[in-house]
């Protein structure tokens, strides 16, 4: 149990002893000012109505009854805060735990129903661009954080390989393919074609495989072959980029399978049978407003084709049938409202409201010298993720993508990203890890097997408390489905280490002091590596 949890339990016992009350709501936190102790609680103030006494009086009564051998000092401050300072022995004992457990410190064994985390899910109509990169970095890091917090996670990519967009993409490639052979392809509207140079890359590969044979086939049959080839080509390209950026998926699910299995039509029939779909103006509508949506949505258009709502409901029913009892969809900000209409269709068919959660990821702007830039050569009017990785590298890209909340738009500062200095936050954190490795390498030191207790200098205490806080940070990030608290924590931890290292020499003659400081270094190295690992970023031993 964390120190916050252990202190909260001791406070609850003090409340029971002093007032005969069973109190569940005891909040313990790290104060911003270290002069206010290592931990603090406002329990006397927050529960003033329950105690019906002056909060300061309650705080003093609880402080006098606290039974916590791992706490050295308890003081009452202000109108009723209780501040706690840990015993040095308890701190060093926990540092020893971090040293022994390594990068697994604070990880929780997996339990509960599996969670389906769907992210990226870019259409196979072109390469991944920089916005997809933010989705990939956030989604993969969130999955890692959820796993560290004890959730069972399955990563899923859903690609839309059906519908008009694939046909249009096929026509775009067919147009390039025909021109390679001195022919023309009948296109209804040239302005709607995909313009990126990658369509010519696909056309050249298509030509190498088929020659000009497709131009001698019946038009619709040839277009089907070309569209399938182009979609597969793009998915392979997408998978290569995802591998490069260290993102993996457990499942790739294609939309076409829902049509081929009849799942889409079956879902529509289930909605009609449940009385949740009705006909109007020649179309079939989902009565989604009855289930929390702001209006009803079209399921089947008047021409008989499905809107995206029908296959999406079928897809999430499939997730449920595969045993997932929680689904998290990571989507672009242009999908605001999507979750509500999809959830309405699922609830209409009996699924619980809390089955689906949607996280919207805001836009990314690439900035150089304060100005937004575009430098794509391959994809027309977009900047590909590969182009960004070529310029800044995988570590920097992944770290920068998740350093700010996914719920806010971000400016990706290219000037800062390429700096190899303390101004660059990922370099700053990685350098702290490399510096610790150099301490052990330079002195030929071994990680101490035991940490002898002793007093803590202020810089040692601040560093130790930051290390001990890591499990709470991970747990909170998982609960809120946020990633940015982890890089924020790592930067603070790196600062605490640099402050400690600047003031205190590690390799001193006193064996006990040396062992304690080496333990602090080893523990810091472990947590930096663990935290960077959650972000999919390397922890280098040399820089």
Automatic annotation (TrEMBL):
One of its GO terms (cellular component) is cytoplasm. It comes from the Bacteria. Its main location: cytoplasm. Its EC number is 6.1.1.19. Residues 429-543 form the DALR anticodon binding domain. Residues 5-86 form the Arginyl tRNA synthetase N-terminal domain. It catalyses: tRNA(Arg) + L-arginine + ATP = L-arginyl-tRNA(Arg) + AMP + diphosphate. It is found in: Cytoplasm. The lineage of its organism: Bacteria, Bacillati, Actinomycetota, Rubrobacteria, Rubrobacterales. This is Arginine--tRNA ligase. One of its GO terms (biological process) is arginyl-tRNA aminoacylation. Keywords: Aminoacyl-tRNA synthetase, ATP-binding, Cytoplasm, Ligase, Nucleotide-binding, Protein biosynthesis. The keyword 4Fe-4S does not apply. HAMAP family: Arg_tRNA_synth. NCBIfam families: argS (TIGR00456).
């Amino acid at each position: 149990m964390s120190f916050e949890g252990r202190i909260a339990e001791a406070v609850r016992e003090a409340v029971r002893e002093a007032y005969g009350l069973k109190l569940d709501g005891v909040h313990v936190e790290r104060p911003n000012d270290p002069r206010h102790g290592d931990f603090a609680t406002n329990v006397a103030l927050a529960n003033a109505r329950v105690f019906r006494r002056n909060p300061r009086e309650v705080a003093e009564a609880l402080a006098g009854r606290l039974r916590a051998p791992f706490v050295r000092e308890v003081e009452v401050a202000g109108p009723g805060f209780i501040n706690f300072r840990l015993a040095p022995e308890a701190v060093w004992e926990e540092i020893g735990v971090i040293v022994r457990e390594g990068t697994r410190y604070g990880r929780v064994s997996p339990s509960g129903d599996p969670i389906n985390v769907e992210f990226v899910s870019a259409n196979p109509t072109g390469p991944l661009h920089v916005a997809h990169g933010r989705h990939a970095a956030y989604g993969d890091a969130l999955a890692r954080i959820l796993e560290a917090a004890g959730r069972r996670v399955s990563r899923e990519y859903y690609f839309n390989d059906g519908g008009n967009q694939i046909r249009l993409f096929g026509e775009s490639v067919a147009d390039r393919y025909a021109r390679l052979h001195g022919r023309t392809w009948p296109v209804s509207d040239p302005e709607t074609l995909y313009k990126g140079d990658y369509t010519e890359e696909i056309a050249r590969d298509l030509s190498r495989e088929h020659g000009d044979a497709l131009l001698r086939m019946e038009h619709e049959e040839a277009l089907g072959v070309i569209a399938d080839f182009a979609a597969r080509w793009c998915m392979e390209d997408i998978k290569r980029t995802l591998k490069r950026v260290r993102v993996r998926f457990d499942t790739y699910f294609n939309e076409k399978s829902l049509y081929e299995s009849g799942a889409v039509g079956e879902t529509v029939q289930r909605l009609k049978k449940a009385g949740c779909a009705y006909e109007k103006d020649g179309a079939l509508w989902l009565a989604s407003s009855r289930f929390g949506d702001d209006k009803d949505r079209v399921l089947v258009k008047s021409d008989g084709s499905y809107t995206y709502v029908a296959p999406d409901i079928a897809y999430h029913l499939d997730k449920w049938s595969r045993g997932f009892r929680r689904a998290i969809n990571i989507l672009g900000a242009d999908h605001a409202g999507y979750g509500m209409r999809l959830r309405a269709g699922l609830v209409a068919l009996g699924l619980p409201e809390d089955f689906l959660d949607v996280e919207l990821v805001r836009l990314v702007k690439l900035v150089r010298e304060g100005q937004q830039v575009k430098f794509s050569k391959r994809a027309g009017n977009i900047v590909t993720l590969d182009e960004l990785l070529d310029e800044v590298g995988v570590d920097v890209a992944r770290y920068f993508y998740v350093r700010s909340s996914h719920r806010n738009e971000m400016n990706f500062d290219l000037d800062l990203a390429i700096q190899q200095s303390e101004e660059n936050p990922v370099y700053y954190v990685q350098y702290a890890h490399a510096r610790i490795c150099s301490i052990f390498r330079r002195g030929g030191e071994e990680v101490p097997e035991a940490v002898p207790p002793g007093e803590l200098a202020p810089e040692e205490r601040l560093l130790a408390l930051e290390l001990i806080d890591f499990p709470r940070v991970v747990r909170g990030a998982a609960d809120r489905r946020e990633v940015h608290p982890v890089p924020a924590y790592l930067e603070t931890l790196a600062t605490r280490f640099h402050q400690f290292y600047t003031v205190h020499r590690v390799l001193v003659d006193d064996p006990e002091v040396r062992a304690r400081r080496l333990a602090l270094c080893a523990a810091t190295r472990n947590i930096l590596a663990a935290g960077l690992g959650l972000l999919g970023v390397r922890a280098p031993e040399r820089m």
